[in-house]
Amino acid sequence: MQRPSVVVLAWLVTVLACAWLALFRTSVVSDVSQFLPRNGAGAELLDDFYASAAARLILIGLQGDTVEARAETSRRLAEALRLTGLFVRVANGSEQLGADEQGALFTHRYLFSSQLDAEKFTAEGLRTALQERLRELQSPASVLGKRLLPEDPTGELLPLLRLWLGGYRQPDSRLGVWFSQKGERALLLVETRTSGLDPQAQAPVVQAIEDAFTAARSNTAVTLLLAGPGVIASASEKIIRDEATWLSIGSSVFVLVLLIVSYRSPLIVLLSLLAPVSAVLVAVAVVRLLFGGIHGITLGFGCTLMVVAVDYPIHLLSRMHGGETAMATLRRIWSTLLLCVVTTAIGYLPMLSGDFPSLTQLAVFSISGLATTVMFTRYVLPQLLPPAWHPPDIGRAWMMPLLRRLGSAGRIVACIIVLLASAAVLTFVAPPRWENDIAALSSIPHSVLAHDELLRADLKAPEPGQMIVIRAPDAELALQKSEALAARLRALVEEGGLSGFEAPSFYLPSLETQRTRQAILPSRDKLEAELGRAQAGLPFKPDLFAPFLDAVEKARTGPLATPDNLAQTPLRLRLGVLLFPRREGWTAIVPLSGVADPTRLADFAASFGDAAIRYVDLRAETNRLIIEFRNDALLKLAGGAVLLFVVLWAGLKSWRRTLAVLLPVPLAILADLAIVSLLGQRISLFHLVSVLLVIGTTSDYSLFFNRTDLDAADRKRNLQALLLCWSTTVAGFGLLSLSSIPVLQAIGTTLTAGLTAGLLLAALLTQPDLRPLSVRSKN
Amino acid sequence: MSRLSTLLVQIFMLVPGAATAVPEWGIQDLMNQLATVTQVEANFTERKTLAILREPLVSSGMLRYRSPDYLQKQVVEPRPETYEVKAGHLFIEVPGEGRKEINLDQYPLLRAIVESIRATMAGDLNTLARYYRIEASGQAEGWTLRLEPRDEEMAHYITAILIGGRDVRVLAIDTLESGGDRSVMTITPLTE
């Protein structure tokens, strides 16, 4: 006997220390980008995307009530949001550039104007412009436009305003604000200051929008619709948290009821629950120590998987009988239990070395949780059990005969039936489809995604993640490349390769281009002479255009506009999303919309022969990474299978038994895939991760069914133990399969189907031959 | 019989006579009457007196209106162009330069200017009153509406628009700008 106090005390101290570390010293990372693969070029492209404006857009739709109520709510909401200071931009179609923004544009109008040429400043060109202005004076709108005429007779400001205000595609307008095409939704577009992929930063922003909306709608029946990466991030986190909370409460109750029914002792139930609890605490602490924090998805997923941790105390508790001490029972099953742990841990190995940081975390989490629960079962639990306790016999009379029948059924036939049925389903009825879409990974509820699609179409907002990225050592080079690119992209738009694009050089021309424009501008004397000739016979007052002469002279000899001096004006915000400094050099983003054929765009970008100009199809890119990861994981899984075989053979010391124990595993996976495909689910990474658990747990079942040293009573207890293991797990995960969240649904279905198949197959295929020797020898 | 018929004639003659005798003409009457007009075609001459020009800018052409929301101003002299308002959209056509479309919803000030004419001609008092404080003076044979912008931003540009007319005919639109500029449009209907 060991001294209980020392071991139990050590365990208690460890768990408390881990609890302190886990609860008070661990930050939960929720940034989605941390979850994605981070190898090579992919990671760089993702960084570009997360830094871009597309990731910071929030799309707002207002529906219900009357058109007037929606328009009015939109106006009030926009006003309130502008006052919060949380946004770079709040647009609903009613906004105008502020006086200082207009002023900054007006100052730079000659250097920014894309319509500048030498022709414009000859007597001829000026006369054409003045006649155009006269025509405008004749129009009903002249009252609004004539104030700037003395300073801007060539009309440079208006096109600039149009460009800066509208971007390149505007939604429809009703009652002065943006509306969807049919008018059923008023639309707003806001750009947050914080990254859209950090739910923790986004949550208060989303809350602020909701609060402002509640005030803005006042007593109308207008309702709010939100979308965009930030909303998706924070909504999916919130929905997952809420739903996961309810599901875990529900499954905990199920597990609790099963344990109470099986053990009929509050103390024993409590002791068996200590295993998963300490497993989670230690696992969080280990991940914290190794990674400096834990990803939200790892935490949620890991805690869910830890339901399985209760299996190990069950393996001990259900096999105890009054005739021996807990330690004696433990010694009896220890070799099998150890093999169980090792085989389950091998199942997690493929995740450990992947490029998905959170899956690596998850593997560490699971393996350390597993180790904890086994240590707990081995060293702590036996010492806490009341002496001579044993579980009540709750078996039913039909169970053992059934098990015997299963065990002596035609194994080869059963194998072939399962194999053929699954293969037939997977080949003819429901071929498995891989889920390569990143959206399925980010655990977004379907409804949130649907809103996103709807509002994005309404607002004609660019699809996030379709862009050309330019990298350059300085802003000037980035802008020059942007100009060269834009010229050729225009041609591609005309050919129908895409529907539109935006470029930083639209807003801020390169210094080179600005110098070219300066060279076009005539000297003051020359301009005055030309203007004098142009004015002949026109009714303008003679010295009306002195401010124009001054402005041109100032532009001709004055400083050029750079990102730095624009930084002093509000224009910086608009430009900053398309052109920004990075750790090394500058990045320019050219967002694309309506890309017809991605390969054509890729060829187009490649045709520049410049490694610094790259087409990014973010979705395709991340999906490619996922496929790569999956192929890699499958390869490692194959390696794991070999390792599994070696370990089992070393443990069981029999080829026959090793094969018998292993056989249910691939069959269970096959049956599992067939069921999941039949249910219409696409196979995602989360299905694969769940399959790893199916491998580990099915081999546990097999190992215990396969024990040869059991008498009839042991066999009965063994069956009860395995049934309890299986039913607690299925209770835990069965509920998840009802979840609306793709990730939870994937985990739930895969584990419920896989483990049920696993248990049946293990009972069918791995029980030692129970017939008396005399019968066997006849065959 | 003849006395009866004489009496009937007298009664029918007297009824309108009795009505004109009560001088209760008001803006609602004017609007109701204007609302009965389905179509107008007229010549116009517009004379703009602007601080930036040495001499007034004079233009002339045709105005066309169809109840309730079609309005066309076709400038013939000196620089031909056509403005057309159809269902809340403004179309501008300059010969040789094609046609531009502007959604008036996006330009509230422009819309207010357009409504000063359209809503008046359509007898649409509600719309007119949404954009302007209205003051009516005169009587059916010679009336003037003084429209002062309600919107502060618009008041920044325009002090008042004076619309003058006789019976159901709009004859003059006089726009007084805040900077002292002024535009006077004289309208001569071609048909009743």
Please tell me about this protein's structure:
The complex is a heterodimer of chains A (779) and B (192). The longest helix of chain A is centred in the first third of the chain and has 35 residues, at 229-263. Chain A is elongated. With 779 residues, chain A is α+β, with helices and mostly antiparallel strands. In chain A, the strands form four sheets. In chain A, strands 9, 10, 11, 12 and 13 form a five-stranded antiparallel beta sheet that branches. In chain A, strands 3-6-2-7 form a four-stranded antiparallel beta sheet, sandwiched between helices. A two-stranded parallel ribbon of chain A has the order 1-8. Chain A has 34 helices and 13 strands. Chain B is 30% helix and 46% strand. Chain B has an eleven-stranded antiparallel beta sheet with strand order 6-5-4-3-2-1-11-10-9-8-7. The A-B interface holds A 93, 131, 134-135, 137-144, 146, 149-150, 172-176, 539-541, 544 and B 46, 48, 50, 52-55, 57, 59, 73, 75, 79, 81, 83, 92, 94, 103, 105-106, 108-110, 113-114, 157-158, 175, 177, 181, 183.
